[in-house]
Predict the structure of 3-isopropylmalate dehydrogenase.
Amino acid sequence: MPKIVTLPGDGIGPEVTAAAVEVLREVAPDLTIEEHLIGGAAIEQTGEPFPAATRGAVREADAVLLGTVGGPQDSPWNRLPRPQRPESGLLALRRLMGCYANLRPVRVLPGLEHLSPLRPELARGVDILIVRELLGGIYFDGDRRLDGDSAHNTMRYTRAEVERVARVAFWAAAQRRGRVTSVDKANVLEVSELWRSAVQDVHDRKYRDLHLNHEYVDSVAMLLVSNPGRYDVVLTENLFGDILSDLAAVIPGSLGLMPSASLGDGAGLFEPIHGSAPDIAGQGVANPAAAILSAAMLLRHGLNRPALANQIDGAVAQALRAGPTADLGGRAGTQAFTDRVLEGLQVTSGA
Ligand code: NAD
Ligand code: IPM
Ligand code: MN
């Protein structure tokens, strides 16, 4: 019986995680699902964003499903010393689990082009996989300081850190259309020069049959939304990947459609890419699709049950066609949308 740890967190996190758990229980009743604290919710109850009990449970888990962490801009959590804030709990979780490769798929499914603000001919058929390095770069470097009127953070990568995430990108591309675009700022940054050379080396040593090109991040930001069809796998470092993936959410139409899988050498971590959405939290209107699709990624990548993952993907697409949530211009609430997904599952499983 695989053990799943869920970490609902803050804001809409508990609402969308509950939806994903309903769906998981429906398709995989054999899973043991155990809920634990993270983020602001954990700070309130234990004083820490990533308490020892959660760390222990995560170490024992076969896969982890996270909601979201963090408060509104004026939250008292944002005045705590940085290591004690909700977001630091999430970063510590990623580091503990060793999840260095964050897969963020961006897909416009047939019949859902109308949900995109882009012209249908631009949105149609888009199928991009952003592979974001998740444990390095400016996020994790110890050389950081806010000192009165001066502050600094440092972007640093080793060749080994770049190579291991590049291998994941090429592995994914080999199962897709065989094209990797590595995104950097090598015209300005030494770190990007190393990034580019390490990615090219991995390609030349082992993946010469795949297509690799290098593009600059500023231009990619423009091309992603003006000509998204030109991309297959987009490989990039931590901060660039964070920004480009929220931008890419515009293509399908909402952050609420963007799931992710974070993979490393051990158990995987699965989470929607969106935040805690304080502006709509507690209203029952959040789009649970990203969380439900993250549960599908958990089944596919975390537990090697691709057939169940496909069933969930199909039921979500069907529910979106029937009527989406408010972020996509629809009227379905979180529960109504989840119920439609559950109904779709029963249809596809023949029950
Ligand atoms: P956000 O992603 O929470 O929200 C941005 C906008 O998108 C808001 O208007 C929100 O209502 C909307 N939105 C996001 N997800 C939605 C969904 N599922 N359904 C409908 N609408 C949705 O970004 P933010 O406002 O910049 O950040 C809020 C908090 O979340 C901050 O504390 C931030 O640090 C945190 N955050 C956490 C994560 C995470 O846990 N992985 C990711 C991003 C931001
Ligand atoms: C994300 C979030 C996180 C990140 C924050 C909350 C630490 O924005 O998962 O995209 O920057 O990685
Ligand atoms: Mn982000």
Q: What stands out?
A: DSSP finds twelve helices and twelve strands in the chain. The longest helix spans residues 190-206. The radius of gyration is 20 Å.
